[in-house]
Every structure is written in structure tokens, then in C-alpha cells.
Design a protein that fits this description.
This protein is of the alpha+beta class and about 525 residues long.
Length: about 525
């Protein structure tokens, strides 16, 4: 009774393998490649008495058909397996960090900038450029910028990142809407076929170049030259087809993001702006698994623990917290720092008959990972300044080592100033370096604020158009899982770099930056996740 089950398993495996062999992204370019080789390359090889060509020519017609069919299937399988690399090359992902990639990215930035400027002047955006990323987010290729533009559109509208969420959403669409799922597959297959055919054209051209150089015959020179515009035309057709595909992707996001939200424990409301923090938080969770939350109560005093020798007793005093922060508002920087003073009474524990001996005190203070110092602070011991020693603890936080001496059974007070509670925004122009951008607080800085507003104002000589700027935000109570940033009404895409959230955008003479701190993570992973 087990044999039929086994045969069904093998039958299913063979059926799936055969389906892969004849998929259009592989079989169509392979067929064209083989036919073009027989039309143009094979006669030249036969005339040059190449043994392989002569051996093939000597075969009977049925065997020739078998060989040709086998070549098509093998080449189709190879092309299908290389399709991912071909797509990454076509979108620029494969060459982004190379010299060629940087050159192409610069050219695409200039193209996007020209398109946007013409759109501002005419009041309309060309259909073939309907969705473009910011020049600062440009990919090296036109096809890459079609996908990047769609992703930027989704991120601006919902805070939805396709790199993190599309695989999950695609599974939901496949189970909920067969027609939409089929259309998505057909459109993406069309893109793959066009890209693979463009690669095929380049391969034929390369073969023609090699044959021309080896034989020093110019018969295939025209084919080598013609392959370049043909490949470029196919590539442009793929970019045009990609716009239709991204339209369907956005339809899928519009219709089924609530289903996706349910899978992750996110309740999707009628207001996309209210939902953005949750989607941005989910993105950080899926891409980088960031779960390092800040203290649950950012305004509460930290619990400082003390470690001493057995002959010393330590009593903590109430923490003094400044009501208002010290503010700095200047070119390129707006910062607010709250002063906190942690006080302790340190007493020597000695016998009654031994009250004149000196007692060496080593006091170590720690508040876990939430206490950090850029440099060792100057503390006060008995009203006198004393330089503490900073003990860097990495993920466990920093500690302070304080050494002093007590006379007999005396006691003294230790005052530790802490200036670690702060929020700051730094802004740096990316162009027009002679121009400075002044940063200031648009709303009064508040310790533990969930939303903070900043004003930016340009100054100095330089062009009067839009100025690309880099904005870096850091707050002692921020989460390292996610943050939401707006430059005027534009939703930015920040990345965590060296403890700061950094994003790029464009400003005019004045701009407002809105920062919203996210403090919640999705509670569960969807069952549809692979």
C-alpha cells in the first residue's frame, strides 16, 4: 500500500521539475539564444571548419532536433537559475558599491533632479516618471528607480516598507485574491522575460565580437553593434512593464494591509498617519530584530547601585532633577540637556576604640545600561572636586569609580552630576557647503516627550532652490527599534547610525522637522511567514 504513495511523491517532484524547465523566463530567452546562434553563428563556424559544427552537421535531422531541444532546456534551466542575479544587475543592486555603480547613481540623481524640476515648472509629472525616489535615495539604474520610487510612495503613504513586508503580504494576497495574485505573477514574469532577453542580446553580441576578433572577419560586426540598442530597448521595455507591476503592488497594499496588520497584531485604522509608527516599528523588527527598548519611564530617576568594601556604609539621597534643560540652538545643532545630581552619604564602619585610623574608600556607582558618560565627570566629595574614573561596561552600561579617604569614623557626602538625559538634532547641508542651517526647538523640549518639533532655517550665500540636508536625531529615551521623522510633510526614511537616527531630505529656506518616538513592537509573527 506504500508504493502508490511513493509513486505520487516522485510524480509530484518530476512534475514540479518539468514545470521549472519550461517557465517563460528561462525557456523563451533560451529558445531565442539557440535560434540566433543557429541563424548567425553556426554558419560561420561551419564555414571555418570548426569540428563541433561539422559533427552537428553530420547528424540526422531527428537527432539534430533532439540536440537543439536539449540545448534549449539546459540553457533555459541555467538562465532561470541566474535570473535573480540578472534582476539584481538590472536594478543596480549588484553594482551599487562599485565605481560604475556610483557613477550610474550620480547620473540617475541628475536625471531625477531634472525631472522633478521640470515637473515643478510645468505642474505635471510625465507618465513614465510618475513615481520617483528622492535624488538622495536614487538607485544606479532606471529599473531600480521604478521599484525604489514605488517603495518610497508606499513608505510616504503608510510607512510601509516593501523590503520588509512584501513577502508576507504576497502570501496573504495569494490566499485571498487569486485574480490579483495571478496578475502580479504575470507582470513580474513579463519583466523577467524582458530582462533575460536583454541579457541574451548582449550574449549574442559578445559571441559576435569574439568571433570577429578570432577570425578577423567582419561578417558579424553588424550583429555585435546591433545587439547593444536591442538590449537597451528590451531593458527600457522591462522598466515600462515594471511600472504596471508596481501599480498592482500598490493595489495589493491598499486592499490587504489590514489583513497583514491583523497577522502581526497591528490594528489598522482609517488614518494612515496614525498607523505609520506601527508599520515603521514592524519594519525595524523584521529587518533587524531590534528590541532594545528604552526605560519604561524616561522621566524617572535612575536606580543607582553602589559597591563598596565591607568597612563602608552608603546611604543614597533623593535625586535632584533640574526642572528646565540647558538649551543650545545654533548653526547645525539644537540640543537640550537635563542636569541630575545623585547624592550619597558615605560613612566608615569602625570599632569605638579605633576612631583615628584612615579608611580608604573605593565606591563604584552603576545604573545599568541606561547610565552612560561620554567622559568621566568631576564629582564632589565633601564639597571638594574630585575626578572620577570611568569604567566602560558596554551593554551593561558605564560605572564610576570614586576613591577617597575617611578619617576615623567620619562620614562625607558624594555628589555625582549626570547630564545623560538629552535630546538633540544635528543638520548638515549635503550641497552648497557655504550655507549654514540653524536648528532650533519649535516646541519646548520636554524630558521623555513622544513628539518633538524642530525648526530649520537656511542662512549664508548659495543657491536658493531646494537644499538636500542630512538630519541626525538622538534622545536618551528613544528606542533603537524605530523612529518616525517628517521634514515638513514628507515622511523620511531614517537609519540607525552610531546611536543616532539619520535621514536625508530636501528643504527650502525654512522647514519643520517632526520626530515621533516609537515604543511598541508587534506582539507576534504571522503564521503566513516563511
Amino acid at each position: 500500500m506504500a508504493l502508490p504513495a511513493v509513486s505520487e511523491v516522485f510524480k509530484g517532484s518530476i512534475d514540479e521539475s518539468l514545470k521549472k524547465l519550461v517557465q517563460p523566463p528561462g525557456i523563451v530567452p533560451a529558445s531565442i539564444l539557440v535560434l540566433l546562434n543557429f541563424a548567425f553563428i553556426y554558419p560561420k563556424l561551419l564555414a571555418a571548419d570548426v569540428p563541433a559544427a561539422q559533427a552537428f552537421d553530420a547528424l540526422d535531422d531527428p537527432w539534430k532536433g533532439v540536440v537543439v531541444s536539449g540545448l534549449i532546456l539546459v540553457l533555459g534551466y541555467v538562465i532561470l537559475n541566474l535570473n535573480g542575479s540578472a534582476m539584481r544587475l538590472a536594478t543596480g543592486e549588484l553594482i551599487g558599491d562599485t565605481g560604475l555603480g556610483r557613477l550610474l547613481t550620480w547620473m540617475e540623481r541628475r536625471r531625477i533632479d531634472r525631472v522633478l524640476k521640470r515637473a515643478e515648472e510645468s505642474g505635471r509629472l510625465p507618465t513614465d516618471s510618475s513615481r520617483l525616489p528622492l535624488p538622495s535615495d536614487a538607485a544606479p539604474t532606471r529599473l531600480g528607480n521604478v521599484f525604489a520610487g514605488s517603495n518610497a510612495s508606499m513608505f510616504k503613504r503608510y510607512g510601509f516598507d516593501m523590503a520588509a513586508l512584501w513577502a508576507h503580504l504576497e502570501t496573504i494576497v495569494a490566499s485571498e485574491d487569486e485574480a490579483l495574485s495571478t496578475n502580479l505573477d504575470d507582470e513580474y514574469t513579463g519583466i523577467q522575460v524582458l530582462i533575460n532577453m536583454a541579457v541574451t542580446a548582449l550574449v549574442i553580441g559578445a559571441e559576435a565580437v569574439v568571433f570577429t576578433l578570432v577570425t578577423r572577419q567582419g561578417g558579424l560586426a553588424l550583429l555585435a553593434i546591433a545587439s547593444l540598442p536591442i538590449a537597451y530597448g528590451l531593458y527600457r521595455a522591462a522598466a515600462a512593464r515594471a511600472r504596471g507591476y508596481t501599480d498592482l503592488v500598490e493595489v495589493a497594499v491598499d486592499l490587504y494591509r489590514s489583513k497583514l496588520g491583523e497577522s502581526f497584531g497591528i490594528e489598522v485604522s482609517d488614518s494612515p498617519d496614525d498607523d505609520k509608527p506601527a508599520w515603521v516599528s514592524l519594519r525595524q523588527f523584521l529587518l533587524w530584530d531590534r528590541r532594545d527598548d528604552p526605560p519604561s519611564e524616561p522621566t524617572a530617576a535612575l536606580e543607582v547601585s553602589t559597591t563598596t568594601s565591607e568597612n563602608v556604609a552608603v546611604k543614597a539621597l533623593p535625586v535632584r532633577q533640574a526642572a528646565a534643560p540647558e538649551q543650545i540652538e545654533d548653526i547645525g545643532l539644537a540640543r537640550a540637556v537635563w542636569q541630575e545630581d545623585y547624592g550619597f552619604i558615605v560613612s566608615a564602619k569602625v570599632a569605638a576604640e579605633c576612631c583615628k585610623d584612615d579608611t580608604d574608600v573605593q565606591l563604584v556607582l552603576s545604573a545599568g545600561k541606561y547610565w552612560s558618560f561620554d567622559t568621566a565627570p568631576t564629582v564632589e566629595v565633601g564639597g571638594r572636586p574630585l575626578q572620577a574614573t570611568l569604567l566602560e561596561g558596554g551593554s551593561a552600561g558605564d560605572s564610576l569609580l570614586i576613591r577617597t579617604t575617611l578619617r576615623g569614623s567620619s562620614s562625607t557626602d558624594v555628589l555625582v552630576p549626570y547630564r545623560g538625559r538629552a535630546i538633540e538634532l544635528a543638520v548638515t547641508p549635503k550641497a552648497g557647503r557655504r550655507q549654514g542651517v540653524k536648528a532650533s526647538f519649535a516646541s519646548p523640549p520636554r524630558l521623555g516627550a513622544t513628539t518633538q518639533l524642530f525648526d530649520l532655517e537656511r542662512g549664508g550665500p548659495g543657491p536658493t532652490g531646494k537644499l538636500p540636508v542630512a538630519i541626525a536625531v538622538r534622545a536618551s529615551w528613544m528606542s533603537h527599534e524605530a523612529i518616525v521623522m517628517y521634514l515638513d510633510d514628507a515622511l523620511l526614511d531614517p537609519a540607525l547610525v552610531d546611536g543616532r537616527w539619520v535621514a536625508e531630505g530636501n528643504m527650502t529656506s525654512q522647514a519643520k522637522v517632526t520626530v515621533r518616538f516609537v515604543s511598541g513592537l508587534p506582539k507576534r509573527i504571522p503564521e503566513t511567514a516563511s
